[in-house]
Amino acid sequence: MSKSPQRHVLLMFLTAMLALSACSDKSKEAASESKEAGENAVEEVADNEPALPTADYFAPILATAEGTYSECEAIGRGAAAGLKAGGSAVVAANGKVSGAGIAGELTADMEVLLVRQREGNAAPTLAMTVQNDKFMLSLMEHDDGKKQAGFGIPPNMTQCKVTKPIKLSSQSLYASYAYLMDAKTTIKCLNSGTFSFDDVAYQVAKGVLKIGDETYDLNTLKMETVSIGNDKRMSYLGQTADERSIMVFLDPQGKVSNLQVNGKGDKAFACDVSP
């Protein structure tokens, strides 16, 4: 697998200042009482508001991981100590991992990193890591078509052979997450050319992302990266053959919250959908 191209990051710094005037002791006391009452009211309303449902970022991961992995063997420190795994490992539909001396579970609170890339006209390759401090699963496709899976926590790992196609590799990462990424809205962006904030049209539909006059075909990118944190947020990075890039950040509900664009020439946007 080739090294990822350098990513350009546009940083925004927003500052604000609030001036407070001096008041008499009596005014301060009244303001304090009013503030306390207001805070209590806000807290009461917040307690009564139902929690918004979180997006299911993990479904494509489980669908890809599920299956049987053969010809397993211990590697690393375990192998050096004479541990022999052998046999096959099975990942069930609910994320339970068993067999070949492996016991673990893939859960939605684990961190995920996906990288799918292609060189020229070659078939795309995929690397996937799902982990927490107790367990890890990694899937790796090589340029020669060989596929491997790793289970455990380094340095004690079990390596297995992958004989089936890796589902997430069969289509763009966008296509696997289109049910969350597709959107149409207006987003406020800092224009790096004019240093002004503009309302910019943003749309993702049918594999095409449009931001202002920049267009990205998400099904033909030379590299895509998806990162899912245990904070229930997702980031999507896409890079084109002509070195343009976009990074989309989704909140726990699956809605776009931030966007960074490096377009043609020096064109760049840093966008925020905060209310």
Uncertain residue segments: 1-31
> CA-to-CA gap between the ends?
40 Å
Return Rg in Å. 24 Å
Roughly what fraction of the amino acids lie in strands? 35-45%
Count of DSSP-assigned helices: 5
Global structural class = alpha+beta
What shape does the CA trace take? Answer: elongated
Helix and strand element order: HHEHEEEEEEEEHHEEEEEEEEE
| Arithmetic mean pLDDT | 81
Largest sheet: 18 strands, antiparallel
**Helical residue percent band:** 10-25%
How many runs of DSSP E, i.e. beta strands?
18
3D architecture notes:
The chain is of the alpha+beta class and 275 residues long. Helix content is 16%, strand content 40%. It is built from 5 helices and 18 strands. The protein has helices at residues 25-48, 59-65, 77-80, 173-176, 178-181; strands spanning 67-76, 89-91, 96-99, 102-105, 111-117, 125-131, 136-141, 147-153, 156-161, 183-191, 196-205, 208-211, 214-217, 223-228, 234-239, 245-250, 256-262, 268-272. It has an 18-stranded antiparallel beta sheet. Strand 14 (223-228) and strand 15 (234-239) form a beta hairpin. The longest helix is centred in the first third of the chain and has 24 residues, at 25-48. The radius of gyration is 24 Å and the shape is elongated. The two termini are 40 Å apart. The model is unreliable at 1-31 (pLDDT under 50).
Summarize the structure.
By secondary structure, the protein is α+β, with helices and mostly antiparallel strands.
